[in-house]
Amino acid sequence: MTSLNQRAQHLLQTVFGYPAFRGRQGEIVAHVAGGGDALVLMPTGGGKSLCYQIPAMLRDGVGVVVSPLIALMQDQVDALEQAGVRAAFLNSSQSWEEANAVERALRRGELDLVYIAPERLATPRCLELLQASKIALFAIDEAHCVSQWGHDFRPEYIRLSVLHERFPEVPRIALTATADPQTRAEIVHQLQLDEAQHFVDSFDRPNIGYRIVEKNNARQQLLDFIHIEHRGDAGIVYCLSRKRVEETAEFLNAHGVAALPYHAGMAHEQRAAHQARFLREDGLVMVATVAFGMGIDKPDVRFVAHLDLPRSIEAYYQETGRAGRDGEPADAWMTYGLQDVVQQRRMIDESEADEAFKRVQRDKLNAMLALCETVGCRRVQLLDYFGQPSAPCGNCDTCREAPRSFDGTVAVQKLLSAIYRTGQHFGAAHVIDVLRGLENDKVRQWQHDLLSTFGIGADRSAAEWRAILRQTLALGLAEVDYDAFQALKLTENARAVLRGEQTVQLREFRKPFKQKSASKSAFTENALDRTEQALFERLRWWRLETARARNLPAYVILQDATLRDIARAKPASIEQLGAIAGIGSKRLESWGEEIVALLAAEADA
Ligand code: ADP
Ligand code: ZN
Question: What is the pTM of this model?
């Protein structure tokens, strides 16, 4: 008899077409297939699905997957069917007849996997149905939804403890990408997973390159970034406000980048339509507020761009984590400037929350600011925030070109005294004008050209002074008074710097430069050459037509990574094609001939 591990390996290769398990997948599969409970913590894109899909196929009966992401169930089931897995779903989007057909299939034991919405699962009718069926396992996806303190709380999730009570002998696997210990404890408690083994995978996403650039003209910078590095790629652009979402989407469309807006102010149907197009079509850019994203399972998002500063590292990591889920190179790119610091501080100060909550928010924002201003490796700092030590990565902007720091004490002293001498009544623009010695009307009106600080900063550009001011604010040496026309004020901490008792290290200012496409990392070194790239484009085109004809998302047919491997290997036979990762036997049967014929035709052309 073959061992469980061999059978798991066999399914991985023949059904899913992958040569090997990733990270802790193999251990998890063995544990759950053997009947154990598990709590799985893996970053977005880490490969959680296989951890329950394969055990469900190895065990007798059907694997029941609880997921709050109703909109995605159809795509998940389509993808499984493409791989030859017998899958279905039950949720409120179905007609009565459709649901009935699934229920019948369940009773007859004709399914390997069934996806069920949590509110449906806890109903007496559904529990009865499950009681009458043979259950292989329960998988509880997005398990952090049981946490009352998280922002994704779903009351229906609390009721999932009924699974343990009703089906004590069925193994359960809970999965999430939320890492903090508090959420983890709550999952265990609420779902009664006391016996579960914990599998915590690395939170690193090595294929994502992190980059934070000085904000200059954010929209133009974004356009350059897309044109130079991501032409024709799918991406997500995050903005803080609805207005900015609309404007940015319009701007991109006007400049040849196909973009769709998404925010909570739009009609529900329109939002749903934009999301569906983004998932299904190749190469669209979604411009969105943070309302967009939870459960966006699109594997081939090649970049996530932030035009505004996220409010915490958790938010930043979750949002950037939507890039590159297929493991292929992807970019997390952000523009960041003075106004971001001002705006985020203001949102906290002006919120209705109590002081204790505001303090937590300020700490989170400060950690985010420190990430922006760091001269060290961004990834080291990110992972450190999640409690994971690491070494410099080589795949972030600061690793590729270390920013220099300099002793900025004198510059900061000049800035602080200009704020002080102008009476702490003026905003950034005026203070910088005074520093640089500009003789404009406002300066003359207030006789600021007579101050000792007038013109003492003429050696630096206004952009440089804004960068210095931004860091001065981030360091808490000055603050903005929102009740008084955004006037700059000194804080208690400023005194020590002004007296020369404390020095200040600043990040050297770099003129925002046109990005070179040459900023390649170790991860993009195995990029395609020109003929391969042309072939890849041709394959993508074939995939788009195939997907359209069947009304499926493109990546359900085959993923980018697989197409790229095909373009590189140019297999001449079905057999050679079958050796490529991501093509299981069902997909080989469905598409093998077409692809091999296409490659042969291209070779002749
Ligand atoms: P998660 O649910 O953790 O965000 P998924 O289960 O959607 O991640 O998997 C992310 C991507 O990784 C998918 O494109 C999937 O096909 C791919 N993947 C998962 N496991 C493997 C593996 N062992 N080898 C290669 N690719 C894998
Ligand atoms: Zn790095």
Answer: 0.74
